[in-house]
Amino acid sequence: MKTICxxxxxxxxxxxxIERGFSTVLVAVGSTEQHGPHLPTMTDTRIGDAVVERxxxxxxxxxxxxxxxxxxxxxxxxxxxxxxxxxxxxxxxLLDYIDSLIRCGFRRIVLLPTHGGNFPTVLETLDAAxxxxxxxxxxxxxxxxxxxxxxxxxxxxFGVTEEEAGGHAGENETSxxxxxxxxxxxxxxxxxxxxxxxxxxxxxxxxERGMPALTANGVxxxxxxxxxxxxxxxxxxFAQFLAEKIGRSSSPSR
Length: 254
Fold this sequence. Notes:
By secondary structure, the protein is α/β, with parallel strands linked by helices. It has a single domain, classed as 3-Layer(aba) Sandwich (Rossmann fold). Helix content is about 45%, strand content about 5%. A four-stranded parallel beta sheet has the order 2-1-3-4. Helix 2 (about 45-60) links the parallel strand 1 (about 25-30) and strand 2 (about 60-65). The radius of gyration is 18 Å and the shape is globular.
């Protein structure tokens, strides 16, 4: 096949791929939201596109559906440049998405959120869909703290601290975007943001009070050590990590 991305395929080609055993489909659940003064608002979705396509290639029997480009981002609205869905809206969108993909003939649907605010809603959606479609394997990886620990470990391998790697527009995400969309990254605006812990307590605070409760510039971390070379490594290892996680079990990882 010339591509495994459904949006680039005809309906006939998709049907043919499913008949040949490509019965798994992967969906990145991204966002359109501020990423500090230096990254584009499509950052989470663009990273999701790239990583999830690589996951599909690693699995070998999967297609990549078009990523969901808008997520639960109300906590970013104060900075502007953000489009957000309510959690119930995203859940309904994802359930319709799953229903459509099942009607296409897929027997395994995998949701992979690439924006932190989407993780609780993705878990709720997986629970609902597994009850509604008992004959279909609906799964995903939605362990936000586990993912952040993994990404922080990648940065640590290059001497970048957990605080610098950050949870939003820090060294890690900035490096990946430098590899994927270097023309959309604005290095002269690189500046540190919040450099404290980013655990469950901080995530809860952000969701309840918004990003300004922790950061004045919309950044969690410090992008100044970011590089294209590191970003390329992060993307490949991110994909390998997700492929391993979703390949282990049909139940969602939490």
